[in-house]
Amino acid sequence: MKIHGIRVPHHKNTADTAPVRLELPSVLTIPMSMHIGRPSAPIVKKGDYVKVGQKIAEASAYVSAPVHSGVSGTVEKVDEILISNGQKVPCIVIKPDGLQERYEGIKPPVITDHKSFVQAVADSGSVGLGGAGFPTNVKLNVRDLSEIEAVVINAAECEPYITSDTRTIIDKAEYIFKGIDAFKKYMKIPRYIIGIEDNKQKAIEKLKELSKDRDDVEIHVLPSIYPQGGEKVLVYNTMHRLIPKGSLPLDVGAVVINVTTMAFLAEYFETGMPLVERCVTLDGSAVKEPKNVIVPVGAPIGEVIEAAGGLKSEAAKIIYGGPMMGITVPDINSPVLKNTNAITVMDAREAAPPKTTACINCGACLNHCPLKLDPRAIAKAYKLNSAEDLKELQVDLCMECGCCSYVCPAKRPLVQTNKLSKAVLRIYKEAQKEKEGAK
Amino acid sequence: MSKLISQVSPHFNSPRTTQKIMLDVIIALLPAAVMSAVVFGWRSLLVIAVCVAASVLSEYLFEKLCKRENTVSDLSAVVTGLLLAFNLPVTIPLWQAAFGSVVAIIVVKQLFGGIGQNFANPAITARIIMMTAFSGTLTTWTAPNFSLSGAVDATSSATPLTLISKGETGSLPSLLDMFFGFRGGCLGETCIIALLLGGLYLLMRGVISWQTPVAFIGTVAVMSLVCGKDVPYQLMSGGLMLGAFFMATDYSSTPPTKWGKIIFGVGCGLITILIRFWGNFPEGVSFSILIMNILTPYITKLTRPRPLTGGADKL
Prior knowledge:
The complex is a heterodimer.
Chain A: E1 20-21, E2 28-31, E3 41-42, E4 49-50, E5 55-58, E6 67-68, E7 73-82, E8 88-96, H1 114-123, H2 136-140, E9 150-155, H3 164-187, E10 191-197, H4 201-211, E11 217-222, H5 231-239, E12 254-258, H6 259-271, E13 277-283, E14 291-296, H7 301-307, E15 317-320, E16 327-328, E17 342-346, H8 348-351, H9 364-368, H10 375-383, H11 387-392, H12 403-407, H13 414-438
Parallel strand pairs in A: 1-14, 9-10, 9-12, 10-11, 13-17
Antiparallel strand pairs in A: 2-8, 3-5, 4-7, 5-6, 7-8, 13-14, 15-16, 15-17
Chain B: H1 18-40, H2 43-65, H3 76-86, H4 94-109, H5 122-133, H6 135-138, H7 160-166, H8 175-180, H9 192-204, H10 211-226, H11 231-236, H12 240-247, H13 258-278, H14 285-303
């Protein structure tokens, strides 16, 4: 069986130039929700002086993450901010003093066993840096280490424009392998699979060179077919195992870690500097000089764009991430987040929503869905508000990759309908459960 | 500063649109349109023009009347007009051609909700209605202008299928004439090479997939062989090539699934054979497609691929 996908334009314009460190922004706005899970709990208050690498918020639950400051400066306020999903979450606003004083407590973590390894990962503030933002330590906290047969290192980077993972490989390949060594030592995982799309020749060469004497690392060069980097797709295409609906990669013996996350962890083990800055691809039709930039987490996007050379035309749409799965930014001064691997700025022409016409029943959506769903039928069931049909069509399997919407000649908002359908089905299932409970 | 657009992903769309798909179909039909004039004379172009104009006009007026969005620019009405003309004899009175187009667009397409909603192929259904209403003019055939194999008078004005069903195989046109379209028949169905070129173009452009034509034509070939008929004549006669590449591949009235297309094609092939060899009509392609159109929702449901749930279907 082959998993379907689509060919999207690559636009990897920024792959060949090293990232540039930008000057400090005038302010950092750090939301407490930059990961999947419970928002972090602030431990600083207005007027506090913080230094680079200092913890400013704690993990508030099992699935949560601590947050650290990327600048030295004064906490201006602990406020609320509107984030992309329409929710308001607490945020910490820091005014940098420009001195970039390093926090005294920064030292390499002491790791002796699995437990202290997972603790170190948790303390680093690490979340999935490829965009998903799932707290890394949670994935590694398994009861029985033998459950994990392989770590799949996600270097597919299948979204258009984005090259920040490519740059990690080219600039920090040694750290990827140091990370693998640490995982081997403390997690006792024997197999490491790096999955990368074939449109990154330079990065592939580098990985092959560094892994040529190792039999624990496999480099899987995969066709550049979106969504190659989707967790389910990547695990299937590298390990030939299908993650069942509602399950985690762990259920098929895999842990999937983004390549930049892996390199970051190795660097953290060496230096003790937590996740306070990151590499972001700045590209899109409105950007004057597309490039990768290194910026502190919390930097306002508007200032990042200015410092990186500005725009050549007015921004009509700004996206966290790439054009296929990225989330639109509500305000140009929204901050760079931990999981912001790219900022895509589109001009009015590129951002103009296409005209939607009637479904012509061509079947392109169902013939391109990686998970073999039928978005055409789902849209009909949604229109009829039929939760039973939506259940039968398995809409809750949808990973929202966007292939269906992309290929649709009528430009129907199919992913959007899938999302809404998932909500209808969720409510229906909850009601079913309640009914059963009442019996 | 103007407000930023907030929108759900994806933020990229493929350049493919309904209009471009329909344009591809029109391009694919052009060689056969040109050949119809070569084979039957200029009047064929007049019939085509009347059908296209009547289709487009009735779509425009109907949508105007019903205050629906104007969809003339998606070019689907042009395709319907072309296909209907291709299914008519060159001698058809122009008012009848126009009437058929109005039936195709208004009755079969618009009354069911417009593009994508019609359960039957508009051109085929209109043709069948015309066969009942104007049976005389729809079965009056003219001889082609000339013949590649020599004497024009050797070429009968009857269609090859009529000749075969009457047992007059001696007066059949040569295979070469059949291949280039010099035989009696509907104006757009005769030139096999032009239809194959158009079909190939649609396959290459990804507008149609191979399953339907291969299953349809393959079934007719195999069944003709089994029934002891002359396979090349069966394949090149009637509206098989036109139907298999251009009508049985219509999106809204045929299954979108791969296996559905195969079942649809095989079903069309079997019904065509049944009508050709045992029915009262010499030709059965139109009826076969219409009957399979009606079965389409069931075929689609039956052949919908199983989502990749990894066995966790119950969740």
